[in-house]
Amino acid sequence: MLKTLLAQVKEFKADSIKTPLFMVLEVAMEMTIPLLMASIIDDGVNAGNLQHIYKVGAIMIVVALIGLLGGLMGGKYGARASTGFARNLREAMYANIQTFSFSNIDKFSTAGLVTRLTTDVTNIQNAYQMILRMCFRAPTTLIVAMIMAFSINARIASIYLVAVVFLAIILGIAIKYTMRYFNEVFKKYDDMNASVQENITAQRVVKAYVREDYEIQKFHKASDNIYKMFLKAEKVIALNGPLMQFTIYTCILLISWLGANMIVSNELTTGNLMSLLAYCMNILSSLMMVSMIFVMITMSMASARRISEVLDEKADITNPEHPVCEVADGSVRFENVTFRYNKNSERPVLNQINFEVKSGETIGILGGTGSSKTSLVNLISRLYDVNEGAVYVGGKDVRCYDLEVLRNQVSVVLQKNVLFSGTVLENLRWGDENATEEECRRACQLACADDFISKMPEQYNTHIEQGGSNLSGGQKQRLCIARALLKKPKVLILDDSTSAVDTATDARIRKAFATEIPNTTKFIIAQRISSIQDADRIIVMNEGNIDGIGTHDELLESNLIYREVYEAQTGGSGDFDENGGEA
What we know:
Elements: H1 2-6, H2 13-45, H3 50-99, H4 102-105, H5 110-152, H6 154-201, H7 203-208, H8 212-238, H9 240-264, H10 270-312, E1 332-339, E2 350-357, E3 362-367, H11 373-378, E4 388-393, E5 396-397, H12 403-409, E6 410-413, E7 422-423, H13 424-428, H14 437-446, H15 450-454, E8 463-464, H16 473-485, E9 491-495, H17 503-516, E10 521-525, H18 529-532, E11 537-542, E12 545-550, H19 552-558, H20 560-570
Parallel strand pairs: 3-10, 3-11, 6-9, 9-10
Antiparallel strand pairs: 1-2, 1-4, 4-5, 7-8, 11-12
Helix pairs in contact: 2-3, 2-5, 2-10, 3-5, 5-6, 5-10, 6-8, 6-9, 6-10, 9-10, 14-16, 19-20
């Protein structure tokens, strides 16, 4: 885990080394000042030597300035190293997420990934800065001050040793309990972020069903869970403060009492007692810093594990060693394909699928909910890999292709339409970033999207809200189809992508496909018979198996499922345009 995280320090290694060096310099100067103070008192004030006071006083000022410089430079380099480290972590996680296949993405919740990229990285950033500055400063101060104290008077210095052992035991007990709470609290963060994301995304539904109070209560519950977990941890941590203060003041009283007796008996000078008291404060304040470091590290360990999970996750689907960089044509073949989302599940999602499609054919896919229609077409663009058998595109196994090449030539309009904030043109150019406005307009004409875009105030420069919230469902579907067409693919997959479009427009889109892109292989998943009845062949799916395959007329005669769906939809179903929009 640490190796994974520290690999992201990269160009900030120099800053990470400079920070502790400057902190050690600051400590060295701080540890010198009590000795100089003792010299002023014993050899200056008590001896009445004013020249000695001026001389040592000037040295103290120089030492203090050097210490100040060390502290400032340590803070500067520490801030740069920690913020740079956090930036690299975010970029590395985000870049790795982009390589994930669908199966990788399925392992993480969206809210969980957001938490890891934000809250968890911030925790690591704070902990890293604390480690670079305090993790070197506090132990160095503790060790040097202890050595200096023992060199002055071992008898009094032994008081420090007892205090350090006592506080170390208390600190160990506190860490044991807080670690458990911090491990749980970030899971609660995921729940809260999921609640926020779901509520904001579905705001219209929330208001339509007057569920604001319910959503507020749900958020309150998630937020309250975080509060309770942090409260439990903070209660344990809060005990450190009073115990530290109690120990400090006890040490000061013991040193003052014992030191005064030793001064009276001439075993100790006044200056040495002042130095010992100064070192006492240094030792015990460094112990307080150490306790803060341990608390911060304890809290960040849970974040470190969560970040490492994302960084260590390897994409299930990668390019082969020598990828094929050209798709010959749009032919598709499934050969004894079996597929499971979970490799350990007994029942496959797709079982022994076999069929062949010639380049340029239009294939309709029909089946009930859960019949694995989407799973079938996801294998063509290699969004998932088969467990058994093989899928061929252009005569080659999809696992032989360069992923970018394959997915550019197998264009998919997914079941859930996703648009991004930006103009219509910017969204269309996801299909081809170099597409001209005329090419975008032509794609929209084929997808029957040009009609409504032309009526917008700024037409193709009209701004689309995040998720396409200012468009209707049918408009979003048509824009997504146009975006896919801009790829000029050899295989086009429409995954129930005209469900929100009226049958007249649906018919116009199919007619445009037939006349304008006849050489493109088209897979059309649909619930309406009218959307696929003119296809060259129709595949009927049932519980992960092909129940039937053939033309519309052939399936009406030979396939019970297809016939039942057809009769249900055409027997007075209320379809307002059963003729497919033709006059």
